[in-house]
Every structure is written in structure tokens, then in C-alpha cells.
Amino acid sequence: MISQEIESHSPLVQNSLGAVLPHLQRAEGVWLYDTTGKDYLDGCSGAVVANIGHSHPRVLARIQEQAARVTYAHRGAFVTQQQIDLAQRLTQMTGFTGAWFVNSGSEAVEATLQLAMQYHRERGEPRSHFVSHRTSYHGNTLGALSHSDHARRSVIQGIEVSHDWLPSPYDPNQTADQLLHAARQVIESSREPIAGILFEPVSGASLSARPLVDGYLAGLRELCDHHGILLIADEVMTGLGRTGKNLACDHWSVKPDLVALGKGLGAGYTPIAAALLNETILDVITLGSGRILGGHTYGGNPLSVAVADEVLQVTLEQDLVAASANKGTLLHQHLKRLQSAFPTLVEEVHGKGLLQGVTLHAAADGEGIGSTVEQLRLACLEEGLIIYPATGGFNDSFLVAPPLTSTLEEIEELIRRLERAMSTLRDNLLAQE
């Protein structure tokens, strides 16, 4: 029984019930504006989504054009030119053979798991056991969350899909050989044949842009090939230029068998995500049942795929992948300068391209993980800057991931606002001692 009185609930259910947040009114480029007229620099592209910024005129025109034609058709009944165009552009950009469209990153991860199981079944060797890594986050649906070592996993305790863990591959104190030795032991001791190994090339939500230990991915690819295991990349946050490469796996010149894409594919203009399939998997299914045994009502709808295709065209025509690499180097240098300016606050800077992360020193007052970065988030909000705190429960860290279209001046303004917020946090922490 709840003993305390509860005020009337708002009909809007938020992540933090009863949270008082700024009322967003409009957005343009890297800027957000609330109903009071205050501006906020979008230092994390929302949830690392708005790759080409807000209210891009080409995308807005494409939305209007496509909405006047057709917004929805079930892909079991019709195929549209928009689907063909996006699939073609996406596979040409990434080097994969097929693209299966869904609605969100979590669904894209679920799709890769289902496609992996279907592939093994259709080749006559059914497998349904998957392995993922400690400190990972793959989404909020049952399968994706089951394979996530993240604080949110507690909500499915008791019904999560059973599987084994590999050690976190983002710990710079571990060597690739040590990690691969542990992976080999898990594979060889597994009581069930493993269908796939799921990984993030750069850890996003849980560790704030920690790249894989160099050498690990190439070794994992060899292990998977030797044991007939599919290598599945979760590039929901990292794909399509965010890290300065078309796919983050390209940093290590390793090609997975399946890839989950999301976030930047629709760039915040429409819900859309995709699973990419290599030729081997697509051939096995084509020559077998000839059907993908899955799907969602809105998957591949004409409006979403047309918008995503325009986003991809803007990305390619404006060379935003290279821009992410170049501007990411500058952003990293600025953040390293802040580390030097705030040595008692900043422990480490890490990341690739315009997906940079900052890890703060653990709170000395015993407040617990997340308390320091939450204070910084609020200080940034006061300064008109949005950052993305880690949510895994592992450390106090945050992402800095502005749109790929950000100008050098906008990146410098981001750093100025972050520096002021860090000064405020440092002073507040000193006052608490």
C-alpha cells in the first residue's frame, strides 16, 4: 500500500515521471529553441540522431512532396520506388547486399537476431544461442535488452533470453589477445552451438564512445569464421558517418555478416531503421524459403524511406562522412584541452569522429554513479547546451556528438558553453567539500 499522497498525474507518461523539462518550440540546424525564446546548442544530436541537423530544407521539401503522393502502403502488397532507391543507395554505401527496413534501432537489432536464426535453420543447422559483451547496450525490446549488460535490463529480470557474456572489449587495460582468449573459452565451452556474436564497434549509451580495443575485431572475425558463427554489428548509433567512416567497423577493416542501423538513417525526421545482410545470408534464404520471416506494420513505409533516402543523399553529396572525421579531430582536441583545464573533473576523453565521449572522475562524496554527470547535464542546460549522459550504470560519462553539418564556429561555441558548465560544476563540488 502506498502511504503518501500523490498529486494528480499528468496524462503524459515520461521517462522520469513528473519531470519538469523545457518546452521545445522549434529547431533549426544545430539550434533548439524553447517557448521562452532560450536557445540550446544540440551538442548530442538529440540521442545521436540528428546527423544533418534540424529542419534541413531539402528534407522538409521531400517530406511535403512524398506526403502528397503516398504515405503508407503495406510492403506485402506493393513495392515502391522509394524502397528500391534507399536500399540501393544504402547497400552501395556500405558494401552489403540487402537491406531490410524496420522502424527503430531496437527492432533492427531484433531483426538481425531473427535473420541469423533463419539463416542457420535454412542451411540445415538450427542455432538460437547468441553471445554479447559486458557493458553493452543494444536496445529496449526483449531480445535486444536481453543481450545488453545495462541497468535497464532489470525490467526484464526473469524473462530475459538466456545467453553467455564475453568480457567488455572497450577496456584499454585489456589486450586483444586477452579478450580473444576469453572469447575462445566461451565459444568452446558453450553447451549450444552459437548463432551469432553481437557487438558495438564503439560503445554508445553505456560507456560514451569507447572504441573497441585495437586488434580485437579482426580476431573475433576469425573466431566466428572458424566456428560458423555470424558476426553481428550494432551500428545503430555509429553507422552512416557518425564516426568518420560509412560504418564504424571500417575503422578496423572488418566486415560483419549482419548490421543493425538506425538513428542517423532517418536523422530524426522519421522513424526508420534497417538490417543489412551480406550475400551469403541473402543467398541461403533466397534459395531456401524465399521469405523473410518477420516484419512490422510500418516497416519500409513510403514516407519514411523517401525521407531517409534524402538524408542519405545529403550525407553523400555534402561529404559529411569526411566532415565528421575532420571535425571530430578538432572536437577531440578541444575536449582534451578541457581535460587539461579541469584535471580534477575530467578523467579521460575518447571516441571517433563526431562521436566523442568524456569520462568524469568518480564522485568523491559517495553519491553514486551518475550523480556528477547529472550535475553537469543541468549546468549545461543552464548554459544552453544539450549533452547525452551515459545510462549504463558503469561510470560518470557523457557523449558530445553534434550534427555532422556543424560548422567550426558552432563546435567552438559548444566548447565555450561546456567550459562554462564545467566551471560551474567544479565550483559547486568545491563548495560541497
Quick overview:
The chain has 433 residues and is α/β, with parallel strands linked by helices. 38% of the residues lie in helices and 16% in strands. The protein has two domains: 24-43 and 319-432, Aspartate Aminotransferase, domain 1 (Alpha-Beta Complex); 57-317, Type I PLP-dependent aspartate aminotransferase-like (Major domain) (Aspartate Aminotransferase, domain 2, 3-Layer(aba) Sandwich).
Kindly identify the CATH topology of the largest domain. Answer: Aspartate Aminotransferase, domain 2
CATH hierarchy class name of the largest domain: Alpha Beta
Strands of the widest sheet, in order across it, are 4-12-11-10-7-5-6
User: In total, how many domains does the architecture comprise?
Assistant: 2
What percent of the residues sit in helical stretches (DSSP H or I)?
25-40%
In the predicted model, the low-confidence regions spanning at least 5 consecutive residues are: none
Structural class: alpha/beta
GO molecular function: pyridoxal phosphate binding; transaminase activity
Pfam families: Aminotran_3
Cofactor: pyridoxal 5'-phosphate
Keywords: Pyridoxal phosphate
What do these coordinates show?
The chain is α/β, with parallel strands linked by helices and 433 residues long. It folds into two domains: 24-43 and 319-432, Alpha-Beta Complex (Aspartate Aminotransferase, domain 1), CATH 3.90.1150; 57-317, Aspartate Aminotransferase, domain 2 (3-Layer(aba) Sandwich), CATH 3.40.640.10. Helices cover 38% and strands 16% of the residues. The strands form four sheets. The protein has a seven-stranded mixed beta sheet with strand order 4-12-11-10-7-5-6, with helices on both faces. Strands 1-2-3-15 form a four-stranded mixed beta sheet. A four-stranded antiparallel beta sheet has the order 13-14-17-16. Strand 8 (202-203) and strand 9 form a beta hairpin. The mean pLDDT is 94.
